[in-house]
Amino acid sequence: MVETSRQAAEHTIDSRIRNWLRPADASINYVTASGLCHPGTGAWFLKSPVYKKFLQAPHGRLWLRGIPGSGKTVLASTIIKELRCADEGSESAIIYFFFSFSDDSKQRLEHLVRSLIFQLSGLHKAGRARLTNHFEKHNDRYEQPPTESLVELLDQMICDLRSVTIVLDALDESNGTQSILQWITSRNRCKFLLTGRPERDIEEALTQWLPSNCAITLENEPVDDDIKAYVHHKLGTEKNLSRWKSMHNLISDTLVEKAGGMFRWVYCQLEELSGCLDKPAVRLMLQTLPLDLNNSYDRILQNIPRSRVPNAIKLLQFLAFSNRPMSLRELVDAIATDPNSSILFDVEDRLAPPDTIIGYCSSLVRLTGQTVDYKQAGSASASALLYASSIGPAPASEAGSELHIKAGSDAKSDAESETEYGYEPQLELAHFSVKEYLLLHRNETPYQEYFQIPTANATIASTCLAYLWTLQKLHLTKLMDATHGMEKHEIRTKFPLTDFATRHWLDHARLAGENQEKLFFWTSKIFVDKPFMEFWLQFYNPALGWGLRLLYAKVTTPALYYASLGGLDRSIRLLLDRGAYIDA
């Protein structure tokens, strides 16, 4: 009984520490990448002299650089698995982090350090003790430590062990790369294995730090065997590909020859081949393969059925330009909303089941193990403000309702301070190269005009406002009085785009500008129609910050203030022309 009570107390402390530290869960990326591995993947590297030298060096350093889609992340997961299998020492540790362009909680030095700290605390008692002590020093989770303090804590935890190997994937997808590179190159008590594109700032920082012959360019290495194994696996397991058995060798040989070391390119071609109805079509595709990834994406967009094009474009606009990652149900409601129609939003227009939304452009998007978690928080945390609107004052010390990225569906919240709304699967662009492609502004890109910054942001802002207008007109405002406070949660549950729309429409309107008449129609409507503006502000008020609430009182701040806050010039002029008092 005593032992059970002690274990329960330790579990409670661990939960509170995790809720305070808010480490990004890199294991999701690891598991996803490992699922793409096939027997023998990366064997050429694991047998290479440079890898064996890395294993033997006390403070080994390796950098695997490669072009987009060359399989760096999959190879990183293979190496992590191999390192862990070989690690038998109680005084050693293998820890890792995957930077991600699609997840704002996996891009900065602070995110990296928090994750590595949490991993080490779970592997060794000494590390757990140090983290617990750090937690208690900072006012028992009510105070967040500065990044410098976390870096120092991580260094201490590393010093407790004889050997620590750190694998970092996709350095090029980080934000604040210089601080991350400075942190890496100033550490001398652990091994580093890094992957990323050979971008200039990364090259310059790592060249002097790396020993000679410790930078490997993947496209110059024998990766064809890995690509061939991948192709044969897909040909043998995919229903629409396995039927062409007499052509498997031709397909494999052709794709391997043309791939140029790009797994992502091969994936796109296999997706296209799976849609062929007969052998002549397969032969024609093999004879007219696109030259590179951009040409592959051109073809994918061109082949979207005409009836699906509008929603496919809108989906890509949200995924490439939205302020934060979006859940599957949020995107389903975004697609079901048409700000230019007489029927703005109808629940019967929602896709069912929700994951059929992938069918609009399946090769360009993917569902991930990452989940979006809706919470009503009573206290601030490290990541509580990740996805706040960029417009408005600095966050208050007490967090309001917020969206968090949670690491896996089994993550638990601190019951004392948070109430869960529910976990939502996340949809994202399938690869970093897809976002780069959409932002390139190539004349050859199909529908390129829709992926300009003003146009895409105008679509997002207009969609958000049309959605909110519909909710208001459904008389949901009657649920907002003081005696029905829980109904606000109910609205967010039944209408999942509410949180994103209320927090971020003003951000996207600012980025779009009001030169587009369709957007100005909606921005002017919310500033002129006082009940509409009140409905918005009851969910989120950018003027008050995070810890404060209107408590359902009538709005006293004039519309001119919010139009000015968003830098919306046409709305400002409209309000002044209508007699708005500039000194209110």
UniProtKB/TrEMBL annotation:
What the entry lists under Pfam families is as follows: NPHP3_N
Keywords of the record: Repeat
- Span of domain NACHT: 60-173
User: Lipid metabolism as a keyword?
Assistant: no
PANTHER family from the entry? AMELOGENIN, GPI INOSITOL-DEACYLASE
This chain's protein is named NACHT domain-containing protein
Source organism (scientific name): Aureobasidium pullulans EXF-150
